[in-house]
Amino acid sequence: MALISNQQTxxxxxxxxxxxxxxxxxxxxxxxxxxxLEAFNLLLKKEDVGIIFISSNFAxxxxxxxxxxxxxxxxxxxxxxRK
Length: 83
Known about the structure:
Elements: E1 2-5, H1 7-15, E2 24-26, H2 33-45, E3 51-55, H3 56-61, H4 63-68, E4 75-79
Parallel strand pairs: 1-2, 1-3, 3-4
């Protein structure tokens, strides 16, 4: 399992017991698309990742790339953010 998100969402995953730091990519809200895409592509290449969770705001910035991804593993799940 891997995660691309903001501090608040990551904190929830850490409280639930997920703390594999190499698989957590934490970004501030105003992060450029290139950094999000770089993290996404890095996680897609990892053989030990079966699921990628990505916050909806970051998923929106790389929507085209997510839509073009046709793989089954890792699966990509978008996490809606609280407003």
